[in-house]
Amino acid sequence: MSGVESRTRTYRSELRQHQAAQTRRRVVEAAIEVFGENGYQAATFAQIAKRAGVSVETVRTHGPKTAILWAAVEVASFGVEGRDLDFFATGHGTAMLEVTDSNGFAALVGETTLAINEPSAGVWTAATGAAPGDSELRRHLLERLAEIRRQVENVLRVVAERGWLRTDVPFDDLVEAFCVIISVESYVRFVQLDGRSHERYKAFVARTIRDTVLVH
């Protein structure tokens, strides 16, 4: 094989990989919308295919349905797929490491929580709503909740190292409180159901983090 032929094959292979990645992204982004609008049970591959501009068979190649759902949750939350994503490797995590005082940390938690929960609320609610009646979904949900808790533990260890974390409350209780405050469910209640603004939500999260988790 000549050098030209080798380069041509490499180019074609890279082009196919790029096109496949673009298709995958369209399918997952369409799934975010479809699951958010219809819930898990009512959402269909046909709806996702139509929204993504691909065939139903193409959507099936990215399935099963539960896998597409959780990929949609990941992309809606952080912009990329991957269960093992390190929060501190994301833009949000990097910004958090650069904060220099506890008030700044609380304010950034408010901003970050809104940035994650606002786009992911629909698809996350679809997952949590269907989980009680679907053992596989429930298992995946519990795994995701455990991963969120691990990430929160990592964040609060850094906060503790900087002397900002309360010491009069057990660490596990602070982790649990943090998880509740930043949960999608709290966002849905505060913003979507109670009709409060994003600015009030960010202020609420920041204030509650300061009052509940941080040294006064």
From TrEMBL:
<feature type="domain" description="HTH tetR-type">
    <location>
        <begin position="21"/>
        <end position="81"/>
    </location>
</feature>
<dbReference type="InterPro" id="IPR050109">
    <property type="entry name" value="HTH-type_TetR-like_transc_reg"/>
</dbReference>
<keyword id="KW-0238">DNA-binding</keyword>
<dbReference type="Pfam" id="PF00440">
    <property type="entry name" value="TetR_N"/>
</dbReference>
<dbReference type="InterPro" id="IPR009057">
    <property type="entry name" value="Homeodomain-like_sf"/>
</dbReference>
<dbReference type="GO" id="GO:0000976">
    <property type="term" value="F:transcription cis-regulatory region binding"/>
</dbReference>
<dbReference type="GO" id="GO:0003700">
    <property type="term" value="F:DNA-binding transcription factor activity"/>
</dbReference>
<feature type="DNA-binding region" description="H-T-H motif">
    <location>
        <begin position="44"/>
        <end position="63"/>
    </location>
</feature>
<keyword id="KW-0805">Transcription regulation</keyword>
<keyword id="KW-0804">Transcription</keyword>
<dbReference type="InterPro" id="IPR001647">
    <property type="entry name" value="HTH_TetR"/>
</dbReference>
<protein>
    <submittedName>
        <fullName>AcrR family transcriptional regulator</fullName>
    </submittedName>
</protein>
<dbReference type="InterPro" id="IPR036271">
    <property type="entry name" value="Tet_transcr_reg_TetR-rel_C_sf"/>
</dbReference>
